[in-house]
Amino acid sequence: MSTQATETIKALYAAFARGDVGAVLAALDPEIEWTEAEGFPYGGTYRGPQAVLEGVFMRLGSEWEGFAAVPEEFVSENDTVVALGAYSGKYKATGKSFRAPFVHVWRLKEGKAAAFCQHTDTLLVQRALEP
Question: Which domains are present in the chain?
Fold first, then answer.
């Protein structure tokens, strides 16, 4: 299953990169628990695709210019996929850009993302938010 799980998550990142939010949301389990790191602008846990859309994706789209989450490596076992990569973007309110490494832990259930947990250097992100 790990190869299939990895391909599912790679497709999710590809959809996000091309701005296909509908495809990203379709890849999420109806009961997904999406956890953004404490200290990240949208820190907390969101339950369900609609909560992820409103609490994370819509804010990323409206508050950032060119926000990207680019995975560089995948490690998987069974239904768990770990993506290592980097975030980048410019915060519109301050005009400041940032780049920060991330680790995303995905857990799949029946071929859909059932859990997401973000790990990143939130200080690098916070610096972009400061006037």
Answer: 2-129 (3.10.450.50)
